[in-house]
Amino acid sequence: MFSLLYGLWEYVFRKEELRVLILGLDKAGKTTLLEKLKELCTGEPGLDPQSIVPTVGLNVGRLEAHHALLLFWDLGGAAGLRSIWDKYYADSHALIYVVDSTRPARFEEARGALFKALGSRELFGVPLLVLANKQDLQDAQPPEAMQQMLGLDDLKQTFRVQDVSALTGDGLRAGLQWLVDQIRKSDRAVLLRQRN
Ligand SMILES: Nc1nc2c(ncn2[C@@H]2O[C@H](COP(=O)(O)OP(=O)(O)O)[C@@H](O)[C@H]2O)c(=O)[nH]1
Ligand SMILES: [Mg+2]
């Protein structure tokens, strides 16, 4: 009897793990973002930004926020490393795409890599949070300009552009809250639940 009730309790209150893929070009600020998210969610300081080195493989972060267990995958963004991105598509509930707002010269490359990913069948309907990063720097483009320059108005799925600084943490809580809300509303979450 106890185990039956416990099983029911676990079923009702168990927190579902939501998997979030973090993509973007190299040096966009993905790893700095993940470390800052860890700090915001746990209260413990993340890695010192000075000690973050370019990501070759994968960084993983497991965090609890907004009543959800979140598993983040931060993949290397250098051109030669982007070929492994698609191994993670099918299992992701949501996508965070990080862009360096101070580098207009790379917006076209960032747009190309994003649309290539979104063109994959395995990312169909994925909620997308685009982070216009490095807003602490003076020459950062505002999010409206980024939305236009990245051609996001052509997108079919739910998306939001959030101005953030991965270094200071500004804007990250609002972005994450939006993403978790969107995951909960998305048909994709239902599909992934059925598959697991
Ligand atoms: N000023 C500023 N620098 C940042 C920010 N985010 C990342 N950086 C810097 O950008 C560089 C690349 O960051 P990193 O997290 O390694 O980028 P990744 O290749 O996308 O993982 C590092 O020197 C970071 O300190 C930010 O929000 N503001
Ligand atoms: Mg990195």
Please name the fourth-level CATH homologous superfamily. P-loop containing nucleotide triphosphate hydrolases
CATH A-level architecture:
3-Layer(aba) Sandwich
Which structural category fits the helices and strands?
A: alpha/beta
Strand order of the largest sheet: 2-3-1-4-5-6
Radius of gyration: 17 Å
Q: Regarding CATH, which class? A: Alpha Beta
| N- to C-terminal distance | 27 Å
Give the number of DSSP strands.
Answer: 6
Shape: globular
How confident overall, as mean pLDDT? 91
Domains, number: 1
Q: List each distinct ligand once.
A: guanosine-5'-diphosphate, magnesium ion
Q: How many separate helices?
A: 6
CATH topology tier name? Rossmann fold
Q: What is the helix fraction of residues, given as a range?
A: 25-40%
Binding site for GTP: 24-31, 77, 133-136
Protein name: ADP-ribosylation factor-related protein 1
InterPro entries: P-loop_NTPase, Small_GTP-bd, Small_GTPase_ARF, Small_GTPase_ARF/SAR
Organism: Coccomyxa viridis
Give a short synopsis of this structure.
With 196 residues, the chain is of the alpha/beta class. The chain has helices spanning 2-13, 30-42, 107-118, 143-149, 172-185, 187-195, and strands at residues 17-23, 58-65, 68-75, 94-100, 128-133, 159-163.
How would you describe the overall organization of this protein?
This is ADP-ribosylation factor-related protein 1. Pfam families: Arf (PF00025). GO terms for molecular function: GTP binding; GTPase activity; metal ion binding. This protein has about 200 residues and is α/β, with parallel strands linked by helices. It contains six helices and six strands. It has a single domain, classed as Rossmann fold. Helix content is about 35%, strand content about 20%. Strands 2-3-1-4-5-6 form a six-stranded mixed sheet, with helices on both faces. The site of guanosine-5'-diphosphate has 21 residues, from helix 2.
